[in-house]
Amino acid sequence: MLETLLPEQKYFSIKQVSELTSVEPHVIRYWETRFGSLRPDRRDSGQRKFTHKEIDAIMRIKQLLYNQRYTIDGARKLLQQESRRGTAQLKLNLGEAHSPTQTLDALRNIRKELEEVLQLLRGS
User: Torsion angle of alpha carbons 13, 15, 20, 21, nearest 10°?
Assistant: First the structure.
């Protein structure tokens, strides 16, 4: 998600994470208590050390709470469902397709285009 924009370092302080994500440190600490997917390791001194994985989790939580207007409990349940599936599913925007027939036609067009791209990549 944010991975390509992050500096090339392994660990980040809570201050750095706050600056990168625009989420206040006290909010990040609170989210740690509410979301199991957000559990940064700690240094010997007790300071949190966030990895790219935790920063991605913060951005996902922020998106769910602030943009998609989930409650904390709703966001937590959704993240648990996604982790059970193994990966988060992306929403597929099919434009103006509203009926099942229009949706099916849109999916068939997408499949056709993907098959054409695959043929180009294979050099056929």
Answer: 110
Instruction: Measure the CA–CA gap between 92 and 22, rounded to whole angstroms.
Output: 27
Task: Check if CATH label 3.90.1150.10 holds for domain 3-85.
Answer: no
- Give pTM, 2 decimals: 0.64
Tens digit of pLDDT for each residue in 59-104? 999 999 999 999 999 999 999 888 877 654 556 666 655 677 777 7
Cβ atoms within 10 Å of 50's Cβ, excluding its own:
23
- SS3 (DSSP) at 67: helix
- Which DSSP symbol is given to 90? P
Cα 45 to Cα 56: distance, rounded to the nearest angstrom: 24
Residue whose pair of structure tokens reads 């056709």 in the numeric block: 112
Structure tokens at 34: 């509410």
